[in-house]
Amino acid sequence: MNLKQLKSFVLLLALATFGISKVSAQSAAYVDKYSPIAKEMMEEHGVPASVILAIAMHESGNGGSRVAKNLNNHFGVKGKNNSTVIRSAYKGYRSVLDSYDDFVGIVKRKKTTQSLFEKHPGEKYEAWVKAIARSGYSTSKGWTAKVIATIKRYHLDMFDNDSKQNKFSSTKK
Question: What is the DSSP secondary structure assignment for residue 94, as one 8-state letter?
Fold first, then answer.
């Protein structure tokens, strides 16, 4: 490897490291901000907080997508909006909390997830993510695996187990 290639490799490695740490910081900030809402939804409705957070993180790019910023839509829900800022097929909400409420309502109305509420209220997050995917919530290939990987990577299942814990440790990877 010559000097020019070595410099390019080091620069690429530095950029990749910065990009990964930036995403981790954005993820930690998102979890810190929205985990109390997800836990409240879990306590009120029974959907695991880890599932709510992971889907929101995945669908909204940790709250950074145009749809999340301009329409308060953190779950990629399609529908009408009155936005004059962006043209979109995604539903607009008055607040992020309204987006979270609507998502839980959608999950409760789907036939494929109703049994989780009725027969298996303490079911693990994997069953919830798979049932939500089967309901047609997302048609993207690999969606289920990506959402489950988000739960594992950021240890979001800790919010399912300890309803008193509300701080995300950004040191966990």
Answer: S
At 117-150, the pLDDT tens digits run: 876 666 689 999 999 999 999 888 899 999 999 9
What 19-23 contacts at long range (C-beta under 8 Å, 24+ apart), as own/partner pairs, is 23/62
Contacts of 2 (CB under 8 A, 6+ apart): none
Give the type of residue at 148: I
Query: 25 pLDDT band (50/70/90 cuts)?
Result: confident
What CATH architecture applies to the domain 27-66+95-161?
Orthogonal Bundle (1.10)
Task: Say how many C-beta atoms besides its own lie within 10 A of residue 171's C-beta.
Answer: 7
d(CA 67, CA 90): 7
Q: Yes or no: say if 102 and 27 are a contact pair by the CB < 8 Å rule.
A: no
**Amino acid, single-letter form, for residue 98:** D
95, two tokens: 């607040």
Rounded-to-integer distance, Cα 113 and Cα 37, Å: 21
Cα 152 off chain centre by? 12
Rounded CA-CA distance 37/95 in Å is 12
Burial letters 34-54, b for 16+ CB under 10 A, else e: bbebbbebbeeebbbbbbbbb
- Total count of residues recorded for the chain: 173
